[in-house]
Specification:
This protein is of the alpha/beta class. Helices cover 43% and strands 14% of the residues. It catalyses: 2-hydroxyoctadecanoyl-CoA = heptadecanal + formyl-CoA; (2R)-hydroxyhexadecanoyl-CoA = pentadecanal + formyl-CoA.
């Protein structure tokens, strides 16, 4: 009996002791025993963020300023990171997305708490679906005020967990450096994507300011008052304990899935036997670590006809004999082997239904879900490889050294290309009932834009035509939203592109509907000296919707716009606007040349082109 009682008491004491140790751990008491809180230090958490970003080679942070995040912006500027402020938070994220795509590093945006963050949701989702490595940093209410009705306090983590690969809320200043390092590595590993870090305001400002907010003016009397005062003081001391100890800020290793040697060998055998192979190259093939020029050379060495989509547009230059732009559905029916290199069997490939069931299919994708999407219904891969598409193509080409696709196959497809494009060219010369022929406008822009131009696609009808007419001159010279089909990317994408490639012409191809989302960024272009060129196909209509809505439902409701003076808006924001209608048709080339000269002199330019209706319909830009 006595032994049982001793055992019971021992268990109780052990449980109590364990509880006390756990409480001490949660309250930071154990950590504070060994790590000092420097109450006199003027340093703040924003400096820790800036140190990590600089160590990772981050050159730009895009933002719309707010008091919650001011320490991050000020600290970044002090260490040489350029702060680029926009007129909408979504634009800041779109700009960071563009930087990620063009630079091969992580794009970074910082916005304030609450509505600042909710304004970014569409842009973050677009980055997720486009597989862009992006770090979003958001402000938040203080650590003790969350859930208590503080200004702009909402459950931000629940919003971003479905959109991001990694989400974290900083609870002490000492967590900032390891958390930011981890987030940057995760953004680039596996299938790249956005990550989110929430920074409560008291983790970013210096001790002497935060301590003023922790003081209780009229604490409860007696024991409760002492407990409250002790708890607040302990929370404050733990918040800054060990904050300024030296920590490693260098990049963590990035994990990239690669095809195995055995998988490569199996693919070599399939490709070597194919008589009519086709490559469908998607945006994922442009991701680091393989340089895009190496991928281009690999494709040229293979000699296999290629259809390019998304960021892969321009991979083979302007006039490659193996780049096929037209009649993709017919080519896939004939092909005896199809290589899906970063291309997904979603709506863009009719969920896999366009693939010939007799074809051998090699699918390569970093994401297993995307790799096998709809393979349970409409198609089956012969070989499915969860790995990096770019490095796969280079290794495949080396393994097939000396072997080339039979030349009559790409030549026959190219002949079909020429026939179709000559037909389209003839359509560009037709007169529309009103205003200018949009196809003629696009052909003219394509002929006159410089060889180093980057094209940003933001729209529906007009941009869908541009995708079949305009030819990116090289790799990483085409930016479109990707699979999400988001409108409004134009201003942010162009801003990020011009900062990454300041010597290149950056053209935004806008529909008049999509322009409304980001026309205010002409102010940003002016203030940050990023002179871009925008050509707006202004048909006073959401034409891509109207074209189906009217014949099916008999009404044009909500589709009509106006022939708005968008060029005047550009002038008002410090840019230069031109109105181009039928009366200026003969001067079209001269006006474009004048616009190009304006950008060389530092002005952002908007060409407001009044266009008519045509019967040219090839599909969406994401095809």
């Amino acid at each position: 009996m006595f032994c049982s009682m001793c055992t019971f008491l021992g268990c109780c004491v052990g449980i109590a002791a364990g509880g006390l140790v756990f409480a001490a751990y949660k309250l930071g008491l154990l950590y504070q025993l060994f790590h000092k809180t420097e109450v006199e230090s003027p340093r703040h958490g924003g400096e820790s963020v800036a140190a990590v970003l600089r160590a990772h080679g981050v050159k730009y942070v895009f933002t719309l300023v707010g008091g919650h995040i001011s320490p991050i912006l000020v600290a970044c500027e002090k260490v040489g990171i350029r702060i680029v402020d926009t007129r909408h938070e979504a634009t800041a994220v779109f700009a960071a997305d563009a930087v990620a795509r063009l630079s091969g590093s992580v794009g970074v945006a910082a916005v304030t708490a609450g509505p600042g963050l909710t304004n970014t949701v569409t842009a973050v989702k677009n980055a997720q679906m486009a597989e862009s490595p992006l770090l979003l940093m958001g402000g938040a209410a203080g650590t003790l005020l969350q859930g208590r009705g503080a200004l702009q306090d909402i459950d931000q983590m629940s919003l971003f967990k479905p959109l991001c690969k990694f989400c974290a809320s900083i609870r002490t200043v000492r967590e900032i450096i390891p958390t930011v390092r981890k987030a940057l590595a995760i953004a680039q590993s596996g299938t790249p994507g956005p990550v989110f870090i929430e920074f409560p305001i008291d983790t970013l400002y210096p001790f002497h300011l935060v301590s003023k907010e922790f003081g209780v003016k009229n604490p409860p009397k007696g024991l409760m008052g002492k407990v409250v005062s002790w708890y607040l003081n302990n929370h404050l001391m733990n918040l800054f304990a060990g904050a300024w100890e030296a920590r490693d800020v260098s990049p963590l290793p990035v994990d990239i899935p690669l095809a195995t040697d055995n998988q490569i060998q199996n693919c070599i055998e399939l490709v070597s036997r194919a008589k009519k192979p086709v490559v469908l190259l998607g945006s994922q093939a442009t991701l680091p670590p393989t340089p895009v020029d190496d991928i281009r050379k690999a494709l040229e060495d293979l000699g296999i006809p290629c259809f390019l989509g998304g960021m892969a547009r321009g991979m083979l230059g302007k006039n490659s004999p193996i780049h096929i732009r037209q009649n993709r559905r017919d080519a896939l029916k004939e092909a005896d082997l199809v290589l899906l290199a970063g291309t997904v069997c979603d709506f863009r490939l009719s969920y896999g239904r366009v693939l010939n069931r007799r074809s051998k299919i090699i699918a390569v994708n970093r994401d297993k879900t995307q790799l096998l999407k709809n393979s349970d219904m409409f198609w089956k891969p012969t070989i499915a490889i969860q790995g990096d598409a770019g490095s796969f193509l280079v290794r495949l080409s080396k393994g097939l050294k000396g072997h080339r696709c039979p030349e009559d196959w790409p030549q026959s497809l190219k002949a079909g290309d020429v026939t179709k494009e000559n037909t389209n060219r003839a359509k560009a010369e037709e007169k529309t009932e009103h205003h200018l022929n949009p196809l003629k406008v696009l052909h003219c822009v394509d002929e006159l834009m410089s060889e180093d131009s980057i094209i940003v696609a933001d729209g529906g009808d007009f941009v869908g035509s541009a995708a079949y007419i305009m030819r990116p001159r090289g790799p990483l010279r085409w930016l479109d939203p990707g699979a999400f089909g988001t409108l409004g990317v134009g201003g942010g994408f162009a801003l990020g592109a011009k900062l990454c490639r300041p010597d290149s012409e950056v053209w935004i191809v806008y529909g008049d509907g999509s322009l409304g989302y980001s026309v205010a960024e002409f102010d940003t272009f002016t203030r940050h000296k990023t002179p871009v060129l925008a050509v707006v196909g202004n048909d006073a209509c959401w034409s891509q919707i109207s074209r189906e809505q009217v014949p099916i439902l008999g009404s044009n409701v909500a589709c009509g716009l106006a022939f708005t003076d968008y060029h005047v808006v550009a002038d008002g924001y410090g840019g230069k606007g031109y109105l181009i209608g039928r009366n200026q048709e003969d001067q079209l080339r001269d006006i474009i040349g004048q616009a190009q000269e304006e950008t060389r002199e530092g002005k952002a330019v908007l060409l407001n082109v009044l266009i008519g209706k045509t019967n040219f319909r090839e599909g969406s830009i994401s095809v």
